[in-house]
Specification:
With 250 residues, this protein is of the alpha+beta class. It is built from five helices and ten strands; from the N terminus they run E-H-E-E-H-E-E-E-H-E-E-E-H-H-E. Strands 1, 2, 3, 4, 5, 6, 7, 8, 9 and 10 form a ten-stranded mixed beta sheet that branches. The longest helix is centred in the N-terminal third of the chain and has 13 residues, at 29-41.
Length: 250
């Protein structure tokens, strides 16, 4: 029987997982999808993910595809699969796409949010989904610094050392900072992101917010093309992959 390709929109709480990608020493989002799809469809299934989120990172709209000869309609797979998956992983949509469609080979726009909880003390119910700081933050200075990162730049300074990529040039469409009560939300939209890029951007902007750097320093950080020029990598739990927007379909 001829196979079809199915695209999944996947939401998950990444707290209990060793990231998206298969690991020898831990359970991952990818391994759970493979296990449950194989059980459901009665054939070996290996998904291809769009974004390999790190351990502790969450998602509302990551994307995965797989091929199957099963007769079950693509749009019904989400309902059946959600009956088998752990409660912290849920398929939001399943749909058939062309056999050659690949989530990393089409032009797309990706949006992440990083949440920072500000207060004298941390909030236990937010500990898995925000980064806590008791420091006063100059949000206006952070916003001015963020403007330097918009557009197309070489983001080598904001890429974890040792990452294997053909190019460190990326295009950031927008960076927005929004105060929601005690939380400061950084929303970043771009064509693609390097390994730990968003978390390094957040860590560097936090240094600006704490007065350890000036907004204008961001220009020199970009120009350095050196990971040591940027700030620390912010913790994973504050980061959520919000959505993918595919700008072209093949």
């Amino acid at each position: 029987m001829e196979k079809k390709r199915v695209r999944l929109t996947v939401a998950y709480d990444g707290t209990a997982y060793h990231g998206w990608q298969l690991q020898e020493n831990g359970i991952t989002i990818e391994s759970e999808l493979n296990r449950c799809l194989t059980q459901l469809l009665g054939e070996p299934i290996q998904v291809i993910g769009a974004s390999r989120t790190d351990a502790g990172v969450h998602a509302l709209g990551n994307i995965a595809v797989f091929d199957t000869a099963a007769r079950m309609p693509a749009e019904k797979i989400s309902y059946a699969l959600n009956q088998r998956l752990p409660e912290d992983i849920r398929i939001q949509r399943s749909e058939e796409v062309p056999r050659d469609w690949h989530p990393r080979h089409v032009k797309s726009r990706k949006t992440y949010e990083y949440r920072i909880y500000r207060g004298a003390f941390s909030m236990p119910t937010r500990r898995l989904y925000t980064y806590f700081t008791y420091h006063e933050l100059d949000v206006e200075a952070m916003d001015r610094a963020a403007r330097y990162l918009e557009g197309e730049h070489d983001f080598k300074s904001f890429c974890q050392t040792g990452a294997q990529v053909e190019s460190t040039v990326r295009h950031i469409y927008s960076i927005e900072l929004c105060e929601q009560g005690a939380e400061l939300v950084l929303r970043i939209c771009g064509s693609g992101f390097l390994y730990n890029m968003v978390r390094i951007i957040v860590g560097t902007l936090l240094e600006v917010g704490r007065g350890r750097r000036s907004p204008e320093d961001m220009e020199a950080v970009l120009a350095a093309c050196d990971r040591r020029a940027a700030g620390p990598t912010a913790p994973a739990q504050g980061l959520t992959l919000m959505k993918y927007e595919f700008l072209e379909e093949r």
